[in-house]
C-alpha cells in the first residue's frame, strides 16, 4: 500500500489525515452543488475571546479550511476582558443572522464568562459543536441533532476500518460531555455493547482487555498500556498531550503507542489520527445545519 509518493503505508495505522482530506474534498463538491442549484453557501461563525495561543491556531485553521471548502467564514475575535453580557449579545445576533448556519465559540473562555451559559445561548440548530443540551438529548433519543465533532470523527474512522460495528464490545475510557458520553452513545446507536470506564473504575486494565474497540479520551499521557489491549482490538486515541522527552517537547496520546501497536489490529497515531477529523466534521455539521435551515436535501 502506498500514499501516492512511493512510500509504503502501514495498513495497521488508521490515517485520519488522509480520511479528513477526502471528506473535505467531498464537502467542497457538495458546497459547490448547493451554490449552483440553490444559490447559497453554508456559513460558519467562529468566536474567539482572548489570546489563548492554542485556540488562536485552531481558529485560524478552522477559518482557512472553511474558506477552502467554499463556505463563508465569519470570525469574531474579542478582547479577553469582554463581558459575558457582550458575548451573549453577539451570540444572539449570530443566531438571528440567516447567513450564519453554524456557530462555534472557542473554548476555553476567560474566567468572567460561564462557558455553559454560552453553549446554552447558541441556537441548537446552529450548534455545530453539538454541545447544546438539546443536541445531547437528540443523540440520546435517536433524533436528528448535530453530533459532537470528535466522537463523530472517531465513529467514521471505526466504520471505515471495521464496517458493521454491531455486536462489538467497545470500551470508552473517559466520561466527558465533549467526547466520552457522546462517543458511547454513538457506539450504542451502532448496536455495540458499550462500557464507559473512568477514574473510579475498578480494574480498568481488566475492563479494557475485554474490548474489541478501545476509545481513549482521558487527557493522561500514554496511560493505556499494551498489556491492557486484547489481541486484534482496534484502538482509537483521542488524547493530545505535550510532554518533555529527551529534552524536547513531544505530542503523545492517551495510549502508549509503542506497546499497544503490536497487539492492535488497527490504531490511530498521535498526531495524524483523530485530530484532523475534528475540523472536517465541524464543516460537515455546518453543511448539514445549512441544508436543514434552508429545507433542502443534503447533496450527494
UniProtKB/TrEMBL annotation:
Entry-linked Pfam families: THF_DHG_CYH, THF_DHG_CYH_C
Pathway this chain belongs to: One-carbon metabolism; tetrahydrofolate interconversion
Keyword GTP-binding: no
Cited CDD domains: NAD_bind_m-THF_DH_Cyclohyd
Domain Tetrahydrofolate dehydrogenase/cyclohydrolase NAD(P)-binding positions: 148-293
EC number per UniProt: 1.5.1.5, 3.5.4.9
GO MF entries: methenyltetrahydrofolate cyclohydrolase activity; methylenetetrahydrofolate dehydrogenase (NADP+) activity
Superkingdom, natural source: Bacteria
Keyword entries, A-Z: Amino-acid biosynthesis, Histidine biosynthesis, Hydrolase, Methionine biosynthesis, Multifunctional enzyme, NADP, One-carbon metabolism, Oxidoreductase, Purine biosynthesis
Catalytic reaction annotation: (6R)-5,10-methenyltetrahydrofolate + H2O = (6R)-10-formyltetrahydrofolate + H(+); (6R)-5,10-methylene-5,6,7,8-tetrahydrofolate + NADP(+) = (6R)-5,10-methenyltetrahydrofolate + NADPH
Tetrahydrofolate dehydrogenase/cyclohydrolase catalytic domain segment(s): 14-129
Annotated residues for binding of NADP(+): 174-176, 240
Record carries keyword Oxidoreductase: yes
InterPro entries: Aminoacid_DH-like_N_sf, NAD(P)-bd_dom_sf, THF_DH/CycHdrlase, THF_DH/CycHdrlase_cat_dom, THF_DH/CycHdrlase_CS, THF_DH/CycHdrlase_NAD-bd_dom
Entry similarity comment: Belongs to the tetrahydrofolate dehydrogenase/cyclohydrolase family.
Primary role: Catalyzes the oxidation of 5,10-methylenetetrahydrofolate to 5,10-methenyltetrahydrofolate and then the hydrolysis of 5,10-methenyltetrahydrofolate to 10-formyltetrahydrofolate.
Subunit structure: Homodimer.
Official protein name in the record: Bifunctional protein FolD
Natural source organism: Dongia sedimenti
Amino acid at each position: 500500500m502506498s500514499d501516492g509518493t512511493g512510500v509504503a503505508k502501514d495498513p495497521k495505522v488508521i490515517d485520519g489525515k488522509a480520511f479528513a482530506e477526502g471528506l473535505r474534498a467531498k464537502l467542497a463538491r457538495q458546497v459547490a452543488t448547493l451554490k449552483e442549484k440553490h444559490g447559497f453557501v453554508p456559513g460558519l461563525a467562529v468566536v474567539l475571546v482572548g489570546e489563548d495561543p492554542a485556540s488562536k491556531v485552531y481558529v485560524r485553521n478552522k477559518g482557512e479550511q472553511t474558506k477552502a471548502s467554499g463556505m463563508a467564514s465569519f470570525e469574531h475575535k474579542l478582547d479577553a476582558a469582554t463581558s459575558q453580557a457582550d458575548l451573549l449579545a453577539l451570540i444572539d445576533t449570530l443566531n438571528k443572522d440567516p447567513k450564519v448556519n453554524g456557530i462555534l465559540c472557542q473554548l476555553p473562555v476567560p474566567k468572567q464568562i460561564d462557558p455553559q451559559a454560552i453553549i446554552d445561548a447558541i441556537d441548537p440548530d446552529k450548534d455545530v459543536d453539538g454541545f447544546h443540551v438539546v443536541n445531547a438529548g437528540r443523540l440520546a433519543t435517536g433524533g436528528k441533532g448535530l453530533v459532537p465533532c470528535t466522537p463523530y470523527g472517531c465513529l467514521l474512522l471505526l466504520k471505515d476500518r471495521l464496517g458493521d460495528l454491531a455486536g462489538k464490545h467497545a470500551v470508552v475510557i473517559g466520561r466527558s460531555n465533549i467526547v466520552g458520553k457522546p462517543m458511547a452513545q454513538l457506539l450504542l446507536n451502532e448496536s455495540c455493547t458499550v462500557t464507559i470506564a473512568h477514574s473510579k473504575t475498578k480494574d480498568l486494565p481488566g475492563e479494557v482487555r475485554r474490548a474489541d474497540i478501545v476509545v481513549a479520551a482521558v487527557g493522561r499521557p500514554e496511560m493505556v498500556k499494551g498489556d491492557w489491549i486484547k489481541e486484534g482490538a482496534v484502538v482509537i486515541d483521542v488524547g493530545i498531550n505535550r510532554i518533555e522527552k529527551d529534552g524536547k517537547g513531544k505530542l503523545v496520546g492517551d495510549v502508549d503507542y509503542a506497546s499497544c501497536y503490536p497487539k492492535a489490529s488497527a490504531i490511530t497515531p498521535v498526531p495524524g489520527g483523530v485530530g484532523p477529523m475534528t475540523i472536517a466534521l465541524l464543516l460537515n455539521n455546518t453543511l448539514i445545519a445549512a441544508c436543514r435551515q434552508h429545507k433542502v436535501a443534503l447533496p450527494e
